Amino acid sequence: MGVAVLAFGLATSVDAGPCKTYTGTFTAVAPAECSSPVGICTHGTLVGGFPSTYDFVAHTLVPTGGPGEFAYTGHSVITTRKGKLFGSDSGHLTMLPDGTAPFVTTVQLVGGTRKYEGVTGQFVAPGVLDLATGATVGSYTARICKSDDDGEDDAESEGDN
Fold first, then answer.
1. What is the pTM of this model?
2. Domains parsed from the chain with CATH numbers
3. Which end of the chain is more exposed for a tag (fewer CB within 10 A), N or C?
4. pLDDT of 148
């Protein structure tokens, strides 16, 4: 989910059949080690409707034509107490002269473990990256769908990541 540092925000969870929608905020920092070929990795925390941690590794970073504008791809692992969600990320960011880079990341869920096996859906996360520190802050909206809804709420209890 890009690079992040967290602010607390309003959280919601909405049921819609086998799909549920969550909102909240996130923060992240650059981890000590980064396996990205373009040097962009983050380790972050989601709070609000889907409390969890996440790790993002960028695979590509390509200019899109405008000054300081780039598109990127990568992958994320979102970890909760009840399992992991795996995501294929894509997004864009704009590097500004003040050393920040506003971005929007879309994480397409491609699978998971335990409670989230077979999950689909997406997270959309706008935020701002501090280019000097690698820290980010932003918000997210997630729609998580399971083919075999077990009747349990997908959201983790606060502090259960």
1. 0.82
2. 12-24+42-145 (2.40.350)
3. C
4. 61
